[in-house]
User: Fold these one by one.
Assistant:
Number 1:
Amino acid sequence: MSSALRWLLYPLVVVFGLAAIAIAMGVVVLSLAYPNLPSLEILTDYRPKIPLRVYTADGYLLGEFGEERRAVVDIQNVPEIMKQAILAAEDERFYQHGGVDTLGILRALHANLLSGGKRQGASTITQQVAKNFFLSSEKTYTRKFYEALLSFKIENNLNKDQILELYINQIFLGQRAYGFAAAAQIYFGKSISDLNLAEAAMLAGLPKAPSAYNPVVNPKRARIRQEYVLRRMRELGFISEAQQNAALAQALVIRREINGTPIHAEFVTEMARQIAAEQFPDDVYTRGLKVYTTILREDQEAAYTSLRRGVLDYDRRHGYRGAEAYVDLADIKSEQDEALDELLLDYHDAEDLQPAIVLQADAKKVRAYRRGGDLITISGEGLKFAARMIDDQAPPNKRLRRGAIIRVQVEEKNSWRIVQLPEVEGALLAADPHDGSIRALVGGFDFHRNKFNHVTQAWRQPGSSFKPFIYSGALERGFTPASIINDEPISFPATVTGSQAWEPKNYDGKYEGPMRMRTALAKSKNMVSIRLLQASGVRFVQDYITRFGFEAKRHPPYLTMALGAGSVTPWEMVTAYAVFANGGYRIRPYVVREIRDDKNQVLAQAEPITAGEESLRAIDPRNAYLMDSMLRDVTIYGTAARASAMLKRRDLAGKTGTTNEHVDAWFCGYQQTVVACSWIGFDQPRNLGKGETGGTAALPAWISYMARALGNTPESFPAMPEGIVALPSAASGRGPAEEVFYRENAPLELEPPPPLDEPMRAED
């Protein structure tokens, strides 16, 4: 063998020898590593963490709880356009490679060498499944090696559609969304099957960097990524150029609600969560429990809208308070600077009351930056509410100037106006008076700002809305709707009250002398209520009101009880007024109907008690009938006459309530099919302002709710029970044509007895 040939063969032998050694070592490593790879049982028996979900009684999602917001979808239910968008964005050769895309790796290496800058990755969908289920996110050669081995093992045990299904359901997509089905609902409020091309491309761009391409937080970057996905879909032949252009031109409506659902029922959802957590504490947020409430979607939206409007109307009546806060704009380089969005992060959207940063302000217009890069101009009518805070004479810490945080609201024709977050709070609760199921519950103006549930947690004075229970007790003591009581000033010395002298007054300071009990309730006469309580016996009435669900200890046995000086919650008031609505039965309100598991098996169920069972009777049916008759007068002739006038029906009953110093405003009332109560007040009790009574501040929300709740409900009136006598009324002017009595209390003829002028002694 010539020396030249030897010099040629030796290098080849060395190269082949080294290659053989490398192959042998690779075989050894594979033989040792492959058997130690984790079992694929977690994939073949896929059981993701499914959050607790809360629904309305009619099946609409109210909210969900869990670390992962997830909705599992079968691959056959994923639209083709969504699959194509995912493949274009993440792994175009998914159906050709065996788990690791060699061509993709070579292409990425070539691009990285040429660019010298940003590095391209080449992870396949199978590799991402391996990483998401089994591996950490550290970037080491060892992890990449195991990732490749796992990918081969996955490909050998599952078919391509099974792997793609796992990826579609498991991948993290921002906003706590895991899987594309959850992301479709969270970002667009849609089922994955209803996504269009533009929306599918937006979602398909998220896996690469869920934070950077999140359309809620970074809409501009999300748009750039969407354009890339659509371009790749076009290059791969998945869509036509016309489809690409149409998708690019389509305006996307991104959901920005914090709760991610279209129904405003955060307080109900939180109540349902607490109930479920108490019963199933160990795995309540991971086993896919479904909690069905008693809430009706239409009622809930009506209650939310009505209370919100009532609170905002009250707030607007009391003027603009000025800038919400100020931010430093010294480092802002332009009006489109992305840093402006960061400055707004601490200010959440309160539904349509959106935060904005003032960039320029003068008497004629305010120019402001709104989240997402939207520049708006407010002028004309939109400035009127805030005009006094633009003037140079406005307080420096409230004046609208550059850097001020304001709230804006869009009006018709895309014009804007300045508004503000209200300081006052409110609550509205509605229930079925026959079985206690809650139809609607709004515990405050904005759950995300104040999670205190005013329906169940706010103990407030009921004021005159408590008077019906004093009157009901008086009926039990022999009074009748036609009894004459004196509406004249009354005073009590310290020796009677036990503390200090008391000289109560009527709300309007006017006194009308002797009047029927029916008229006194309609006009909410304080002097009459006090005399009725005094005559009935304070301790008797304190015990009597417990029949309606009130706690005796919260209503001390003093004559101030007649003016509603005790403590109640809206939940208690609805429970109590239901007794009048259903003919005298005490029901038990409830908000959760049943809890089911992920296989739809019932795990827990409410056992409602229904009006009609005599064991539930709270008051004489005749008492309920007479009280209903008098409470309907309140809504026809009395302090709540606006209710019947606006709703154009005469089967409404209820009572306004305004506490001392105008601290709380109430209206509680019902129609035979629904009982509801609305309340407005400040969390730190203070005067609501002159003229802010129950009829002014609380009644409008109740009327607005009832208008929708009773939209298709015909008028109905309770049947007269046995033992009631009706006599022609001798009253003149407004009032019923007949007066009703217990048979044993009915006069031979209806003539007013002499006024009750003689002094009444307080009970010991």
Note: The two ends are 133 Å apart (CA to CA).
Number 2:
Amino acid sequence: MKRMHFIYILFFVALGTMQAQVQFEAKLSKTRLGINERLRVDFEMNQDGDNFNPPDFQGFRVVGGPNQAISNSYINGKRSYSKTYSYFLSPQSRGKFTIGQATIDVDGQIYKTTPIQVEVTAAVDRPKDENNADYVASENVHLVAEISNVNPYLNEAITVVYKLYVSHDVSITSSWREIDTPKYADFWSQNIDNQGNFKIYEGKYQGQDYRYVILRTTVLYPQKTGELDIEPLTLDVPIDVQGNRRDIFGRRLMTRVNKTISAGNRTINVKPLPAAGRPDNFNGAVGTFQFDVTTNKTTLDAGEALELNVKVSGNGNIKLFNLPSVKLPNSLEMYEPERKENVRTGLSGMNGDISERYTIIPQFKGNYPIRPISFSYFNPQTERYTTLSSKEIVLNVENGPLTAEQTTEHEGNGTKKAVVLSKEQFKYIKLNANLKPVTHQPFFKSTLFWSLLGGPMLLIPLFIIAGKKRKKRMADFEGNKLRKAERLAKKYLVEAKKNMKDKATFYEALERALHNYLKAKLNIETSDMSKDRIAVYLAERNVSGVTIDQFKSLLQSCEFARYTPASTVTIQQDYNKAVETITTIDKQLQ
């Protein structure tokens, strides 16, 4: 019986512990929302706490909160407690964001919430609520994307004009902010900037009188056929709306609402260019164009340069196609063309001209025709292909050498006069080549091949041995300590030699060198040791008494030099004695 009572007691204690466990968690109204929607975040706890610290809400703007709510109730004698901090957030851009950890202090213990990921998508259609200022703002401010042609041909220009309509019942007194810029995938695009000068127009929106401004005009050239999406432009707009409160004169007070509005997603259907009647030389030009081929001269001498200019002008996708190529006789030397563009982008698309300038140099005397060059384009207004051709141009080269054919013709006519060519004509031919035979030995299975293949294998044992020695040397703590002391002794001897003109610095360095030498050789610390004790250590290592006396006198000289004058001769003698004494001790140490 007592055992059962004990089990009951343990059960109720465990139950009370579970009920007393602190719970602190973050709850979101949704984990996926449009950029024009609001997100509610609740930080809820089942026990009262202090020092609540919210996260920084990166990627969002706090438009409401923190609002605090407390619930404390008793049901069937059981207490239920809840405390909640609520925030209302507006996303600032599209993407994936994380609602970070919030912290709370409960009875001296810090509790944290679990981070939650949120995805912000493009603007979505929102349900209307006629009882708040947000609804009034949404019904009186509209962002519209007007498209000039929703069913264009491939590479035909279309214009997207973004207009912000504002009714006379609300007003916008501060600047808006762009939070989502369209990315025109599958389009060539260019914005026509109005340089921030927004002119206010009067117009109609859904049959009602509105004011509007043109925010942006974008020219698009579709690069694919089929249904293509134009992403929406999204703005954050502060709107002043008439509220229900009135001032002392009975006038209604204005309430400011930050509204996220979107132009909405638009779809256009791009038609392919017709295959019927397409010329063979068509290279993708769409619009209305003029074509011209000109030269700066038609009469010249061999070796003299002229310029051939191929030019296309008009309105269309003028930057998006290549000019027709130029083919010339072999006797005319032609260089790579220089491209020049003079194109402007307006509401109707690109207009202007592009040209390619060729430099041509004839090599021989004669007449050389440049055959007509053709250029084809598709006109979306007439829905037909048009081909333009240039006129034939004849180049008259008056003076210069003759070709082999021309020479034969002269001889056939009875003219026996030899044609003398310029020496420069064959200057690139080397008469005395001085050629030598080249013996090519294959690389595979050669000495170099086997050396490169086997060399690394032979180096592996050497690296292993060197690594073991280095590891052993690094593990020798005492040895490293002695080697360091020996290096210090040599270092201070060198330093002492450099400072022979400075008595104090010389003897200080000399004393350090002597002490570090003993530290390295005898493995003793000499800084706090007397000269007599050092003499005993040296005698135990079979160092002669004369050498020990010399060492002691050196230490004594270092001490006395701090208080007594010393000549340059004395300093040199002490240095030589130190070198001699250290050398002697090295020989006598066992």
Note: The two ends are 87 Å apart (CA to CA).
